[in-house]
Amino acid sequence: MTSTTPRLRSVVRGLGSALPARKVTNDELARKVDTSDEWIVQRTGIRQRYFAGEGETTSTLGAAAARAALADAGLEAADIDLIVLATSTPDYTFPSTATQIQAALGITHGAAFDVQAVCCGFVYAVAVADKFLISGSHRRALVIGAETFSRILDFEDRTTCVLFGDGAGALVLEAQEGTGANADRGVLTTQLRSDGRHRAKLFVDGGPSTTQTTGHLRMEGKEVFRHAVGMVSDVVRGAFEATGLTADDLAWFVPHQANRRIIDASAEKMGIAAEKVVVTVDRHGNTSAASIPLALSVACADGRIQQGDLVMIEAVGGGFTWGSALIRW
Ligand code: ACO
Fold first, then answer.
1. Which of 265, 207, 60 is nearest to 253 (CA)?
2. CA–CA separation, 250 vs 273, rounded Å?
3. Sequence-separated (6 or more) residues with CB below 8 Å from residue 310
4. Which of the listed residues 27, 43, 227 should we mutate to test ligand 1's pocket, taking the one with most ligand atoms within 8 A of CB?
């Protein structure tokens, strides 16, 4: 369905990212747990990741990414009236990490809050911010994905600790008048899904209301893998159906960076050409809600993503949660 009724669109104004100072190679991990560079690369495509060090937290990384996005947009912090942060590794149980980023940026107006959808968090955050902006209630949003998964990993468990890393990415979205057509710049559609029956396949075994501890990440990797491609296909197809666009219209496919094999299988199933797929899992590992804005930052910085390009983002995460967004850059 292609609408041509004038409407507000959430248009990308800027993009930024931040990584911790410390890079951790597969070989370094192999000195601590029974694994190898060869196993990790072959099963996941991951070659290195970054781990937060002393003084680096989800809010410091998120604020650094936000500052970079504001600079890219040519805006001041005061121009922002909404901050939506996707994270599953908040600095504290409360207040929300979004408010700590807001304070670090010196913003004292508007609203700031966290969204929790694990690896699908950034797609959820884009969808939430989009709905605020197109309603006219807010003008400019910082949409941030920031994580320090290294702090919830069990370094005795080689099946999970080799997969994840830390980092942050941020997008500035601005409400602008569009024509309602697919040629408009901005978010064209968002598709969100969840099914909480799958909790046990990917979860953290602690929390304030249960164990009063932070807990560690637990995952049935094979089970997640088994469901992942079907969930990706569901929301990619959903975005195409909502807009009447097809895989051929895409300039770039920027999936959540969990695992090279899931990315390749999903693109192939959806008929998306390999050269349109942005892959950064080799250099960042799985940074959960931060992986998509980190990948977008890489593909914008190296000149691949250009204004006017049609970009599909999608992710699958714990819950399960899964979602996609089609954005005319
Ligand atoms: N190093 C060496 N050997 C290992 C490691 C490791 N780090 N981890 C597991 N193994 C061993 C296992 O013990 C097993 O040994 P065994 O045959 O003697 O029992 C062998 O390797 C094979 O293990 P599998 O679990 O069958 O390996 P598989 O090919 O399924 O790969 C993996 C595991 C990479 C986790 C895969 O299942 C996967 O990618 N799943 C998707 C999960 C995912 O990406 N989650 C990210 C979070 S969710 C999201 O973001 C979508």
1. 265
2. 9
3. 245, 249, 250, 251, 252, 326, 327, 328, 329
4. 43
Q: Looking at 138, 161, 286, 300, which residue is catalytic?
A: 286
Distances (CA, A) of 29 to 48, 50, 149, 152: 9, 12, 15, 16
- pLDDT tens-digit series, residues 227-253: 999 999 999 999 999 999 999 999 999
Residue pointed to by tokens 């807010």:
138
* pLDDT tens-place string over residues 29-71: 999 999 999 999 999 999 999 999 999 999 999 999 999 999 9
- The closest alpha carbon to 146, from 253, 16, 10, belongs to 16
Give residues (CB < 6 A) around ligand 1. Answer: 35, 39, 43-44, 119, 158-159, 162-163, 202, 219, 221-222, 224-225, 228, 256, 258-259, 286, 316-317
Identify which of 142, 178, 138 has the alpha carbon closest to the alpha carbon of residue 14.
142
